[in-house]
Amino acid sequence: MIIQAFLRWVETARTGDRARAASALGRAYAQAEMNGLDRHAAEMAMTFLLDDPSPRVRLALVEAMADCPTAPRAIVRALAEDQPEIAFAAIARSPVLTDVDLVDLAARGTAETRALIAARGAVSCSVAAAIAEIGDEEEVSVLLENSGAVLLQGSLRRIAHRLGHAAAVRDRLLSRADLPSDARHALAEKIGAALSACELVQAVIGSARVERVTREACDAAALAMTAAASPNDLSQMVAHLRETGRLTPAFLMRALCGGATEFFTLAVADLSGLAEKRVRSILFGGRVHSIRALLQSAGLARDISEAFADAVLYLQAQAGEGAAPLAALLERLRRNPSSTSASVAEFVERLGFAEQRQIARDYALLASRQAA
């Protein structure tokens, strides 16, 4: 009877009175101050208030109900689809909205709606994946800053692919320890692309040199990332580099000469389509002809595969001693020029010089620290 009287009264009451009544009704429901019959009647009254012509009334209702874990989901969902000021309170605070609700709201809502969802105290992996897929820089940045958001590696990869060009997003991704190596390398390539496109950089060192330096830096970054990558992460890295055209003979030789034998093995398996176990047995115990055949099945030309086979045999002989010295490998290739293409020999020689430069840098750094 009280609710019936309320409904009759609300038809003629002033806006301010209706707003106060809506707030009182919502608080009474949220605080469980009603029995079962009264709660059903209150739900009917609140449903009726959803059609109130004044947004003040609906705002008062949502403010009273937003934090209630037992609020009627249908009513909260309707309020979440109301005009922005009303919807924001429901979206940001209500615990009764399901993942399906939030994904739907993110898909149909505005950037502000997605930012509110991304900032909720807890964001499930499915909701985070939806925002990673359709969100712009601002709402994705909010998601990455939210410690309560569950972001799987697939979502991180998607964000890196879609928004890695945005400095704010890129910085937040790179600061995450759970960022996959292939996504980290993709971001490094985006940084390189940004530097290559910079007119100042091109004017200072020339566009041709910029392209070469950028590529070598990205290759070095990729190899550095393989050192700390998990086995599954390493496989993803290989697939990423193949898809982006990075698994060139020069890159593979750099990996082989740098001691990244596990990465080299996975790369050859990926390129050849052979089982990893089979590739491993050939590389670490096969003879020269089987090694050459394996490398040619991975797409290497005949002359290049001969140079790689020679390097692999040298590494077999050096097994257990760590990375083979580049100088020694270069000397081996020089002694057998018939098996070494000019391009591969030149590249190995550049690697040897790069190693000398790095040793010089490390020595200078150590000397400066000792002098400090």
**C-alpha termini separation:** 86 Å
Shape: elongated
The total tally of domains equals 4
Report the mean per-residue pLDDT as an integer: 82
Uncertain residue segments = none
Number of helices: 23
What structural class should be given to the helix and strand makeup? mainly alpha
Percent range for β-strand residues: under 5%
Please report the total strand number as a whole number.
Answer: 0
Helix % is over 70%
Structural account:
The chain is 75% helix and 0% strand. By secondary structure, it is mainly alpha-helical. Helix 8 (111-118) packs parallel to helix 10 (137-145) and helix 11 runs parallel beside helix 13 (181-197). The chain is elongated, with a radius of gyration of 31 Å.
Please provide a brief summary of the model:
This protein is an all-alpha fold. It contains 23 helices and no strands. The longest helix has 30 residues.
Topology:
Blueprint: H1 2-10, H2 15-30, H3 36-49, H4 55-65, H5 73-80, H6 84-93, H7 99-108, H8 111-118, H9 125-134, H10 137-145, H11 153-163, H12 167-174, H13 181-197, H14 199-205, H15 207-227, H16 231-243, H17 249-257, H18 261-272, H19 276-285, H20 288-297, H21 302-317, H22 326-335, H23 342-371
Task: Considering the chains and any ligands shown, give keywords for the structure.
UCP035865; mainly alpha; elongated; 372 residues
